[in-house]
């Protein structure tokens, strides 16, 4: 698909041996068209591919398109929170393109599409509290999923029996039965019980439905069959439309690049039916970074890799097989998770009490040798003293003490029984509000979270007196700061050893056990998102396995300064100016006067003061730098490409940011402010991109 009809290597002989290509990144939900019912749909990928083919772009990179339906409202908008690693999201189905759709339903669906796309649909400005800006006609997730659910049910009532009896559906079911049957039952039970929290399903709850029992519950003629089979048919319709888009992309010489989320929702069919594959009492996330000072807590259970390895990672291989039906390449979200994962206890809400799993811990013997093992409660328990309380809560601190803490004597305070976790404290504050006069509950909860996280070392679950882990960024805690200087020095040495020394070969060996099984599962091109706290061993493993790493100019590798230099990127990489977890180039330019000045003078090599706004020329300079990079792939968020044309650039670039990582419950609702139909008519814009691609080889 990549090389088809590609004559660039004849025009530019330099690139005959090292092929390079460019593409766009855009979430399906963000595509805007007249035919999409208030949201982007799988069939919107066809005009997207047309634009790319005309512009000589070879890749359309997407965010995950798997089903996330737990609540049937905007809480399900987070595309990385899959309730099934196989099932496609019904929100991307085009109702009007369902084969055999009855005419009355088609007419009503067309009318609803016009209503949801009407410029006057939103009666007032839509404000995003995380981004602190107004959004431009975003996705109204709840309204869209409610409308589509209604039309899908009506269509199934009318033609479902005919579909179930068709040879085409039966062939689809035969290939997908291993995941489709439990998925359909899971969805039926979710709606029956009114919750996806499968621990609350009694005799049908987590891990309690055998394959035999499932066969009985979902067999034709069973009481549940008609309702379960609805979800099977919806998946068939979604499959037809994404497959059509995928096949069309191949015909046009463009590849679809999918996204493989590192996590699976705790309330998912996978965790319900096969809980032995997961550590259900843990949560996964990421350590603190420049974009999330408290770390990230995604709430997903961590993987039980030891169990998964027993059948050569069959769960993962099946997952990749499903993706390969539609995608020609894929991005492994947080590929560092295959080396080690940031794991928190289930009682945590932030990422500060995490530790890497697996990892080689600090031992009691090490601590004793350093003279640190004599008072473990001081290092491992929340360090709470009256002066810390006063600093956090002001003169009314004693009211917080009376509600949440006990006096342990000697000026030491500790949490009351049962109130030692972030989850427990949040439940109380949500229920009772703030005990501080004139203070919002959020202020109280933030202070309590600081206290919970005010530790220096974390105990191992299984050997709490023998093995320990340094708390991430422990030097920022009052507990660490009030230790004697010599103890601080010794703890810093152990911290450095744990995070940046002893683990490298251990983690490399683990990754080499897992990643080859994924790569052998399909013929898709493999890319890895290797950002964050990167172990030294990662680059060597990715090179050995021929996996392309990710290079983002604003997230340079250590030692590269404040910006990555595109001309130094290795060929085995994907370069991009921004991604969904950060502002666009234009949005960033508006936010960071000092940094934009440095980029202007040192990276773009322009004299004088940087312009206050990111104009078309600046956006073009950034794009050109990435196109001329040695990287195999240069991928551009569609927002960054449109910024090269003043007619297409968003006047409020801050609203073009898709996600806000510090908030795991952020509402993902970005939608392109220009329709695909309009974009296709901008032939000079498309020609400009084509020229830039051809000039850079």
UniProtKB/TrEMBL annotation:
Catalytic activity, EC: 2.4.1.25
Record's keyword terms, sorted: Carbohydrate metabolism, Cytoplasm, Glycosyltransferase, Transferase
SUPFAM superfamilies: (Trans)glycosidases (SSF51445)
Primary localization: cytoplasm
An example Gene Ontology CC term for this record: cytoplasm
GO molecular function: 4-alpha-glucanotransferase activity
InterPro entries membership: GH, Glyco_hydro_77
Compartment(s) of residence: Cytoplasm
Catalyzed reactions: Transfers a segment of a (1->4)-alpha-D-glucan to a new position in an acceptor, which may be glucose or a (1->4)-alpha-D-glucan
Gene Ontology biological process: carbohydrate metabolic process
Family that this chain belongs to: Belongs to the disproportionating enzyme family.
Name the record gives this protein: 4-alpha-glucanotransferase
Source organism per UniProt: Cryptomonas curvata
């Amino acid at each position: 698909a990549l090389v088809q009809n590609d004559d660039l290597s004849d025009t530019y002989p330099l690139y005959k041996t090292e092929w390079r290509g460019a593409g766009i990144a855009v979430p399906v939900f963000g595509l805007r068209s007249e035919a999409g019912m208030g949201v982007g749909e799988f069939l919107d990928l066809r005009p997207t591919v047309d634009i790319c083919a005309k512009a000589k772009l070879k890749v359309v990179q997407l965010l995950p398109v798997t089903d996330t339906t737990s609540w049937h409202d905007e809480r399900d908008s987070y595309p990385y929170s899959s309730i099934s690693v196989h099932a496609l999201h019904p929100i991307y189905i085009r109702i009007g393109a369902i084969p055999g759709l009855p005419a009355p339903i088609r007419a009503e669906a067309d009318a609803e599409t016009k209503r949801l796309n009407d410029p006057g649909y939103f009666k007032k400005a839509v404000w995003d509290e995380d981004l602190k800006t107004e959004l431009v006609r975003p996705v109204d997730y709840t309204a869209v999923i409610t409308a589509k659910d209604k039309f899908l049910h009506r269509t199934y009532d009318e033609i479902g029996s005919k579909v179930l009896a068709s040879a085409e559906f039966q062939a689809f079911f035969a290939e997908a039965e291993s995941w489709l049957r439990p998925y359909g039952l899971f969805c039926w039970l979710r709606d029956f019980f009114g919750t996806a929290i499968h621990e609350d399903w009694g005799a049908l709850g987590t891990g309690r439905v055998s394959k035999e029992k499932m066969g009985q519950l979902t067999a034709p003629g069973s009481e549940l069959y008609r309702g379960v089979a609805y979800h099977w048919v919806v998946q068939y319709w979604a499959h037809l439309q994404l497959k059509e888009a995928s096949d069309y992309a191949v015909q046009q010489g463009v590849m679809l690049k999918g996204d493989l989320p590192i996590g699976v929702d705790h309330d998912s069919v996978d965790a319900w039916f096969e809980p032995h594959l997961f550590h259900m009492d843990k949560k996964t996330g990421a350590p603190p970074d420049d974009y999330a000072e408290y770390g990230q807590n995604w709430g997903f259970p961590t993987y039980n890799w030891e169990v998964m390895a027993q059948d050569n990672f069959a769960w993962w291989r099946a997952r990749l097989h499903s993706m390969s039906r539609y995608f020609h390449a894929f991005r492994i979200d947080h590929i560092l998770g295959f080396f080690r994962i940031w794991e928190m206890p289930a009682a945590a809400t932030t990422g500060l009490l995490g530790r890497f799993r697996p990892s080689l811990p600090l031992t009691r013997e090490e601590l004793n040798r350093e003279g640190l093992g004599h008072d473990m409660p001081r290092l491992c328990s929340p360090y709470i003293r009256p002066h810390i309380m006063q600093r956090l809560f002001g003169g009314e601190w004693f009211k917080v003490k009376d509600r949440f803490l006990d006096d342990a004597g000697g000026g030491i305070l500790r949490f009351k029984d049962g109130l030692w976790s972030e989850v427990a404290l949040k439940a109380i504050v949500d229920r009772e509000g703030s005990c501080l006069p004139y203070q919002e509950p959020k202020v109280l909860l933030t202070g309590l979270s600081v206290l919970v996280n005010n530790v220096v070392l974390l105990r191992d679950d299984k050997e709490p007196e023998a093995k320990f882990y340094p708390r991430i960024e422990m030097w920022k805690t009052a507990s660490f700061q009030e230790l004697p200087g010599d103890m601080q020095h010794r703890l810093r040495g152990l911290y450095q050893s744990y995070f940046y020394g002893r683990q490298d070969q251990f983690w490399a060996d683990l990754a080499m056990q897992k990643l080859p099984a994924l790569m052998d599962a399909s013929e898709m091109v493999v890319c890895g998102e290797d950002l964050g706290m990167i172990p030294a061993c990662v680059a060597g493993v990715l090179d050995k396995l021929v996996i392309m790493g990710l290079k983002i100019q604003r997230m340079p590798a250590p030692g590269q300064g404040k910006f990555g230099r595109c001309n130094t990127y290795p060929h085995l990489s994907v370069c991009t100016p921004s991604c969904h977890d950060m502002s666009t180039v234009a949005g960033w330019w508006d936010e960071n006067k000092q940094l934009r000045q440095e980029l202007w003078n040192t990276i773009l090599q322009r004299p004088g003061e940087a312009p206050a706004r990111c104009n078309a020329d600046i956006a073009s300079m950034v794009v050109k730098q990435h196109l001329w990079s040695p990287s195999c792939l240069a991928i551009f968020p569609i927002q960054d490409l449109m910024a090269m044309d003043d007619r297409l650039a968003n006047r409020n670039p801050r609203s073009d940011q898709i996600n806000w990582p510090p908030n795991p419950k952020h509402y993902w609702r970005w939608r392109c402010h220009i329709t695909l139909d309009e974009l296709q008519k901008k032939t000079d814009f498309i020609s400009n991109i084509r020229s830039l691609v051809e000039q850079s080889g």
